[in-house]
Write a structure and sequence with these properties.
Rossmann fold; six-stranded parallel beta sheet; four-stranded antiparallel beta sheet; 10 strands; 44% helix; elongated
């Protein structure tokens, strides 16, 4: 199946709109197997459509249906049988351990299981990093994050800091978090980092990130600074269990001092949270 409706490969807007509609329509009207076959048979166009959905986020429902609900396909090697495993169903699946491992790594591959040898096709978007604070640490963190595969966005209302000259090749939004973050549709594939030391910027951003199930949330500051932050967020009605998800002081404890060293500690902690089994990341 190919995209029609006038969308060309180099027609970004047309491809984004037409592809998203076709993918969603196939998923809703056809069986999950039909949707899966389409997504993989026309891989180049399907990948482009999925990326446009992520980048545009014009319709969260479309992005969720195309990307997040088709997480992986399990194929039995001997029999050739295939089945679709949704993320929400992994906990009760016989292949739970293998599925969770491959999902954490974000890679497809062969797995030996008690049920036999299977090939797991993992189908998830690249992780994203959203940072509030166009500061020196961010200038070191952004290229590191891009190098290891993150889509990076910097948010800071201070236009003197939030500039493309300071952050080349990175998406920069010079606006307040209340306006900048909702259109990004951050989600469980997003790491969020607050670096401004300014409660007017970081607090509403952290509140938004906590409500969006980010896989990692970190905030710059000493233990005393973080304790004051927690009290402010508690006063807004955020539960202690949710606030406990914030990593602060941010980053791995490696004795980091300079902005670049702190950035290394942050990307290390984010990577551990993304790739290690739950409960083992420090």
């Amino acid at each position: 199946m190919h995209f029609d409706g006038g969308a060309r490969d180099d027609d970004v807007d047309g491809l984004r709109e037409t592809s998203a509609q076709l993918l969603l329509g196939r998923l809703v009207r056809g069986s999950p197997a039909e949707a899966m076959r389409f997504a993989f048979d026309d891989d180049a166009h399907a990948y482009a459509a999925r990326r446009r959905c992520i980048e545009a986020r014009d319709d969260v429902g479309i992005a969720d249906a195309v990307i997040f609900r088709i997480d992986r396909v399990a194929s039995a090697v001997e029999s050739g049988a295939q089945r679709l495993v949704k993320r929400a169903d992994i906990a009760g699946d016989p292949l739970k351990d293998a599925l969770e491992k491959h999902l954490r790594m974000g890679k497809s591959g062969m797995a030996e299981t008690p049920q036999g040898r299977v090939f797991l096709t993992v189908h998830v978007p690249p992780p994203r990093l959203v940072v509030t604070g166009a500061v020196h640490i961010s200038q070191a963190l952004a290229p590191m994050a891009k190098l290891v595969g993150y889509d990076v966005t910097i948010v800071d209302p201070r236009t003197a800091f939030a500039s493309h000259e300071r952050f080349p090749d990175v998406r920069v939004i010079a606006d307040w978090p209340d306006a900048a973050l909702p259109p990004l549709s951050i989600d469980r594939y997003t790491a969020f980092v607050a670096l401004t030391h300014d409660p007017k910027i970081d607090d509403p951003a952290l509140t938004h990130a906590l409500a969006r199930d980010c896989f990692y949330i970190g905030a710059l500051g000493s233990r005393k600074t973080h304790a004051r932050r927690i009290e402010r967020l508690k006063a807004q009605g955020i539960a202690e269990a949710e606030l406990a998800r914030i990593h602060s002081p941010i980053g791995l404890a490696i004795g980091a001092v300079s902005p670049a060293e702190i950035a290394v500690a942050i990307i290390g902690e984010i990577t551990a949270r993304l790739r290690l089994p739950a409960g083992t990341a420090s």
